[in-house]
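Issue: ligand-bound run for cobalamin - logging full I/O for the record.

Environment: standard queue, default settings, no custom constraints.

Inputs:
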Amino acid sequence: MRTINIGGKKIICDDGENLYKALLRGGINFNASCGGVGTCGKCYVDIDGVGRVKACQYSVKEDIALSLSVQKIEALTKGMLRDVKADNKAACIAADIGTTTVVAYLIKDGKIKDAISSVNSQKPYGDDVITRIKYTIDNEDGTDRLHSLIKNQIKQMVSELSERNGALVSDMAIVGNTTMLHLFAGVSPASMGVAPYTPKFTELKKIGNATLLPSLSAYVGADTVAAILASGMHLSDKKCLLIDIGTNGEIALGNRDKIITCSAAAGPAFEGAQISCGTGGVAGAIDSVKINGGITYTTIGGLPPVGICGSGILDTVAQMLKAGHIDSSGYFEDEILYIADGVSITANDIRQVQLAKAAIAAGIGTLVELSKTDLSEIEVCYLAGGFGSFLNKQSACDIGLIPKELLDRVVPIGNAAGMGAVLWSVSDECKKEVQGITDKAEYFELSESSIFNRLFIENMAFE
Amino acid sequence: MSILSEISENLQKGRAKNVKELVARAIEEKYTAKEILEEGLLAGMSIIGEKFKNNEVFVPEVLIAARAMNAGSEILKPLLAEDGVEAVGKVVLGTVKGDLHDIGKNLVRMMMEGKGLEVIDLGVDVSAEKFVETAIAEKAQIIACSALLTTTMGEIKTVVEAVEKAGIRDKVTIMIGGAPVTQSFCESVKADIYTPDAATAAEAAVAAIN
Ligand code: B12
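Outputs:
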């Protein structure tokens, strides 16, 4: 038996137990994208008398005291809400279960009255869906455990919302990626972890007073369906593009006639993971950068820089290209550029950005080719999700993440998934529209697509 | 510049057409197929590999260089066979079952071919049995598995076990890689070699055979 002391809080563990696992059990929330296999470098802790170690690579052989700087993640609760006729005036809840954050809205009289967000309580079990799925495969009670975590978290959020608004809520609409919905429903997501990535269910599902909106496939979930609903692209005559630039990179292209979707697994580079000094959108994160002779930057909250987040990374790469620090192939002769004290960008970081942006750009390109769309036909390019709301669209176009032709048509719509869930809750028409979207939307699998493969390689350069 | 270094230079720039012409000219000028291969094509690929390792070039540059190498080696193949020049060794390569990522695996193939190894590429979603069967049928010295998903890297262990069960564990070296794979994972599943990148993988493969 060993004791881990974290600033007064005590966790008891077995002799020789893995520190990362012990801390997880003790409720310590890491940003560990690799799920504790030693590769992502996000679980560093400072042990008194030992120094800085990766918790996942350390076994506890004596009583230790340590400190950690758990960073706070803020979720985006706002988004574009189109005008719909409110049929449902009763108090109800709409929730968006993201892999990273969970957002819940209290709706009354057809309007959002209050919103609340928190870090997904499953996060200690991995940053991305694959790592969570792996957890359910490796641990017999894995699905149950992740299920009860999210169920309790939602329950807590709902009771907090109803308490502080003195509202009695009845129904609840839930969106999220397909894995999150499986886990909320207590259904094993294991079959989505390996090819051919088959979900156990995609249709609309009722669990008690909760309704899970329908998904399209294992990697295009109800969150994307809801985002389409919020954007209104399914009602438009002209073609629209919708992109959620994130780990799974969901993309939809189409209009009232037809919508085609895909998931371009960009990875978490734009969330700061896999980038040497990367961090999420936390206080002190460098979020915008200019290179003009010297380097100037801003940080979130104006605090001293602690790292660099997605929008800052995007700016840095775009500015480095312009200033000639890197060439169009991504070659970075100097190998490292210091942006601020202790915050730098390395040649390897540039390569990670190239992979992530090439995946998104190739995903867009594949849908454009498949639907025989000319970029000039696309009326709006909606950006859903947190990163899409904070990025500098000029930088995004400069590095080729988004086609340059669309620069003037880029419209960030915030937490579109959450807004979609709200619309579904209040409007009968929207409920019908969701059905229409699932009928009309087609999922295209990028694995083994020769178009995607060609475009992925083509888009790796910065041309 | 000698014609062989010209071949190497053009290969590095990915100029497939030039490489083809230069190889044909070198044959006319009575260089042996082995010389052209080793001092022209493989020398060029080696430099690309080194640059890839150092982040000087990236995936697209490696792909076009490899295409240029293939253009040259197509012409050389019959001559090499005639001269009785054999490959450095044989590798059975594939992405493990349940996984469809193949770009990293393809780079491994190119780099290995760039070291003069013969690579039998089984593609993606390859079962453990298929790896073993092919290794036995082809008398390969190396089985190389790529896995890009945390959920499919466990499949590597299945391959190691299948190799043991087939009774060829002492005859083949098992190499593993892909983004989520690490040295400690390699040790835990009792595979033989892990490398973080394709260029190092090719070097390690040659070293393992010799
Ligand atoms: C391109 C890509 C795809 C393409 C695959 C195209 C193809 N033909 O391979 C597509 C879009 C189809 C795809 C699909 C999926 N992907 Co994907 N994909 C990527 C991406 C962006 C790049 C991978 C890559 O090609 N890297 C470049 C190569 C050169 O690097 P590499 O493979 O690591 O190989 C190098 C080394 O590892 C080594 N190596 C490789 N193999 C071997 C073998 C041996 C023996 C040795 C010694 C060395 C070695 O050498 C190589 C060169 O140096 C990564 C994210 C990222 N930024 O890395 C995600 C990623 C790998 N994908 C991921 C996932 C989850 C998926 C999906 C299952 C789900 C999804 N959508 O998110 C789907 C499948 C279903 C679908 N279509 O939606 C995850 C895996 C997460 C995890 N924890 O395991 C990643 C990390 C992104 C993420 N979401 O976080 N993906």
